[in-house]
Automatic annotation (TrEMBL):
The chain crosses the membrane at residues 12-34, 46-76, 96-120, 174-193, 213-234, 246-265. GO terms for molecular function: bile acid transmembrane transporter activity; sodium-independent organic anion transmembrane transporter activity. SUPFAM superfamilies: MFS general substrate transporter. The gene is Slco1c1_1. This is Solute carrier organic anion transporter family member. GO terms for biological process: monoatomic ion transport; sodium-independent organic anion transport. Belongs to the organo anion transporter (TC 2.A.60) family. It is a multi-pass membrane protein. InterPro entries: MFS_trans_sf (IPR036259), OATP (IPR004156). Its main location: membrane. It comes from Calyptomena viridis. GO terms for cellular component: basolateral plasma membrane. It is found in: Cell membrane; Membrane.
């Protein structure tokens, strides 16, 4: 009778809330960080600085996969059970790694790395060669916003400004096209990172630990190196918007053309009784 009802766990709620807080804390880094670099750096140096920012951001998942590989080698109840009493290995399908350990290590690292931000000055002196026209443009933007406040048909000024800004952003054809391209690229990249480890486990008989290790070593570092080299090339040739667009289109086209080679590489499916072959 006690086995009739499976025990339920609400741990997913803690993971959901933790990821929500993590997203709230991480999101401002990219838009505010890029704006900060754009305001306080020389125009020709901005591509390199932005490339460094994105390169470091790509190194995070790489170390995450390596940490996941290490944690997957440890049994899920490490510290609570005697390791000598465990009779299965990471290659066994019943093995469950210490997935929770990575959250504790990464959370502690995030907390410690956030402390230096408290000591940054509230404002910095703009160096010579920086774009000083942005201050003038910002003042003009504030005047436009104040006029929108007076002529707003909404009762809430925030909603009026949000609607106006959203309309301007979405009506910009270049930005809207870039947004659509980014959505397609990240959707394919996330699917690649999500399912390739499982493919390696099923097709090549690798453990979860080794699959994460190989993904972290082979997939993410080339992306980070490519982003950094792209920033150096843009700085060297002083590309404008049109030049950067042509450069991005050329590199993306070559990358997608090479991706077609995946269709010629593969393995035969495993013989699964009742699915791919009969039970006899």
């Amino acid at each position: 009778a006690g086995c009739g009802k499976e025990p339920s766990s609400y741990m997913w709620i803690y993971i959901l809330l933790g990821n929500m807080l993590r997203g709230i804390g991480e999101t401002p880094i990219t838009p505010l960080g890029i704006s900060y670099l754009d305001d306080f750096a020389k125009e020709e140096n901005v591509p390199v600085y932005v490339a460094c920012l994105h390169t470091i951001a790509m190194m995070g998942p790489m170390f995450g996969f390596l940490l996941g590989s290490l944690c997957a080698k440890l049994y899920v109840d490490i510290g609570f059970v005697d390791s000598g009493s465990i009779t299965i290995t990471p290659q066994d399908s019943r093995w469950v790694g210490a997935w929770w350990l990575g959250f504790l290590i990464a959370g502690t690292t995030n907390f410690l790395s956030a402390i230096p931000f408290c000591f940054l000055p509230k404002s910095l002196k703009k160096p010579e060669g920086a774009n000083n026209d942005k201050k003038k443009n910002f003042a003009m933007f504030c005047r436009v916003l104040s006029s929108n406040y007076n002529h707003a048909s909404f009762k809430c000024p925030f909603l009026s400004d949000f609607y106006t800004s959203m309309k301007k952003v979405l009506s910009n054809r270049m930005y809207f096209t870039l947004l659509c391209c980014s959505l397609l690229q990240f959707s394919s990249f996330i699917g690649f990172l999500t399912y390739k480890p499982k493919y390696m486990e099923q097709q090549y008989g690798q453990s979860t630990s080794k699959s994460n290790f190989l993904i972290g070593i082979t997939s993410l570092p080339p992306v980070g190196i490519g982003i950094f080299l792209g920033g150096l090339i843009m700085k060297k040739y002083k590309m404008g918007i049109i030049g950067a667009t042509k450069f991005s289109f050329t590199m993306s086209f070559v990358a997608y053309a090479i991706s077609f080679l995946h269709f010629f590489v593969g393995c035969d499916n495993y013989a699964v009784a009742g699915m791919t072959v009969s039970y006899e």
